[in-house]
Design goal:
Elements lengths: L2 E6 L12 H10 L5 E5 L1 H4 L2 H4 L9 E4 L2 E4 L1 H11 L8 H31 L6 H23 L11 H11 L11 H11 L2 H14 L1 H4 L1
Parallel strand pairs: 1-2
Antiparallel strand pairs: 1-3, 3-4
The chain binds S-(P-nitrobenzyl)glutathione.
The site of S-(P-nitrobenzyl)glutathione (GTB) has 12 residues, from loops.
């Protein structure tokens, strides 16, 4: 069984690990599965060959024999269900870990993406200065709520799970803004995720492609 994912030929973040192939690489590393990467350019992503695997012309995708998947949530859940290491054995704990995956993608990531978009692409708009604090407030509200739930625990619900993998991946997008600094428990939570050997391998693999000088 060969697993192949797609990733940016050259990520716009220059190897900061923010493109979404990193979370899939991380999941593959956590479950100890080797994988191959097919690199695609922005132009190639919109060509019929890639659109056949990803209807929206994006990365990452996942191929395993005759199974083709897109959407990082679906890919990570598939890996977590097929291989040990990312979901607990107990049925209720498993359901809760999956709920955290959905919370990361559906509740926490949307305001973070809005915030990133506002910071990166809306600076020249006449309404930017008015809109940015509103968007920032929506992110802060989610961080306050998440931090209140996490408290001093290492992970969101018992042992590290796919829920934590997804939540840490989503929160990492805030790092360049410095917003996590106002939430020390979450900053420590993200640092624990980044310290995992599997994350380090995933990060190094994408860095080697996107910034070979730094990767050495
Ligand atoms: N919901 C989908 C999923 O989770 O799989 C979203 C996939 C997605 O947004 N893919 C992006 C993409 O292919 C790359 S990850 N974009 C190209 C396009 O739409 O044409 C998003 C991303 C891109 C770049 C940075 N960065 O440079 O910091 C961070 C995140």
């Amino acid at each position: 069984m060969t697993m192949t994912i797609t990733a940016f030929e050259r990520s716009p973040d220059g190897g900061k690990g923010l493109a979404r192939d990193t979370r899939v690489r991380w999941a593959l590393e956590e479950v100890g599965q080797p994988y191959a990467v097919r690199f695609v350019s922005f132009a190639a992503m919109k060509e019929p060959a890639h659109l056949a695997v990803h209807p929206f012309g994006q990365i990452p995708t996942y191929e395993e024999d005759d199974l083709v998947l897109f959407e990082t949530g679906a890919i990570v859940l598939h890996l977590a269900e097929r291989h040990a290491g990312l979901l607990p054995g107990d049925a209720n704990a498993r359901a809760r870990a999956i709920a955290w995956m959905f919370a990361a993608l559906n509740t926490v990531e949307p305001p973070i993406l809005e915030f990133a978009t506002a910071r990166l692409f809306e600076r020249d708009k006449p309404w930017h200065a008015e809109r940015l604090p509103l968007v920032e407030d929506r992110v802060r509200q989610r961080l306050d709520q998440l931090s209140a739930r996490l408290r001093d625990a290492d992970w969101l619900d018992g042992a590290f799970s796919a829920g934590d993998l997804m939540m840490v991946s989503v929160l990492l997008r805030l790092k360049p803004s410095g917003m996590l600094d106002g939430h020390p428990k979450l900053a420590a939570y993200v640092a624990r995720g980044e310290a995992r050997p599997a994350y380090k391998r995933a990060f190094a693999a994408q860095l080697a492609v996107n910034n070979p000088q730094v990767a050495g």
